[in-house]
Design brief:
The protein is of the alpha/beta class. It folds into 2 domains: about 10-170; about 175-410, HAD superfamily/HAD-like (Rossmann fold). Helix content is about 55%, strand content about 10%. Helix 15 (about 330-335) links the parallel strand 5 (about 315-320) and strand 6. Helix 1 packs antiparallel against helix 2 (about 30-45). The longest helix has 19 residues, at about 385-400.
Amino acid sequence: MTIDATPDVPIPSVLSKLDEIRQRMAAHTDREDERRILEILAGATAVELDQLLLLLDLRALLGDVDDRLIGPDNRTALLDLLTAERLGELGIPARAALASALQRGRTGRRDEQALRRLWLGTRGADLTRLKNAVDGRGGYHDLHQLFYHDIDDDALREELLAHLAREAAAVTTRDMKILSDIDDTFYANWKDARYPKKTVYPGVLQFYAELDRGPGPEPARLGDLTFVTARPGDRLGLVEDATLRALAERGQLAATVLAGSFTRLIGNRTIAEKKLENFLEYRRLYPEYGFVFVGDSGQGDVHFGQRMLELAPESVHAIFIHDVVATPERARQELALGGVHLFDTYIGAATTALERGLLALEGAARVAEAALAAFAAIPFPSHEGRAPRRLELLRDAARLNELLPPSLRLDGAL
């Protein structure tokens, strides 16, 4: 039984323990310091231990406590304490913090075995919460990085993925993972010259938020947006972290990133296949979830979406493609019959999502209102550039109005 929550404010007994551990970690940590740190953690109550793990720099702690050639094996004792003896007393945030600390730097055999105990010791809905908590910590060290890069033992990886699959079978969730491209999907940055370069498309942020919220009267768990990009990753995660910063600067504060590869940058089909590889790996991490994908028509995303539907039809609820290459109407209709829906504006995307039961009426209206407001602030260089885009928005808003009740219609905004 995991602890659902710990007090927001540390209890007094935690502060004194925390202070002593930090003092012993401040300089060189010798055998006596390590012995005392282990003693404090072992003697802590469940609530104290949970809070200590959330307040300590666990990466530094795991680096300071060592195994020695002629004993004692204090690091092994620490890992055993936290991931075996007292794992059942740790809440999900503390487990996520511990998993994140174990994946930093070189992940050795003992670290992988500690991760094994941590993941196998978490089950059911708690396991879903743990996966999302690891992804929700932000930055390069996310769940995909942990399972597919930091864990080197292929047999261990398959054991853990099998555990995720078994536990997911008993979990009921109405949440979806929203996968999205970046360039020409989130903002104009590749082939789309209709908008000023780097313009965040009007309504896209609200569209992500409403898909995340879901169609029900009560919002689903938030934080399920992942960007699947052709941008190549690197061993240090510099590209992914820079991408996350760029997204945050443009209003998307919470997301994870699945990067591409330098060897898969040539040709739309090759780019799409790398994205598909990432999707199939990601789907194994979250087998209890459904998925939607938001991409564009300029760089292989149509093929990617078709392959998603082909390989995981029971999991993929919709493919939305921002059309930046003026696809003929007949081709659009043919793609829609196969489950790939092209759109010109995010009001149009929201209308299709509403028709497919992925957004609530209120959610679709909020996307439209956000799109119209954001469009008004875009600094187009000329009236000739602005006018066609405005007509697209008004056309899609009029179509959405036909589906909305009188109380939600956009007539005042038009």
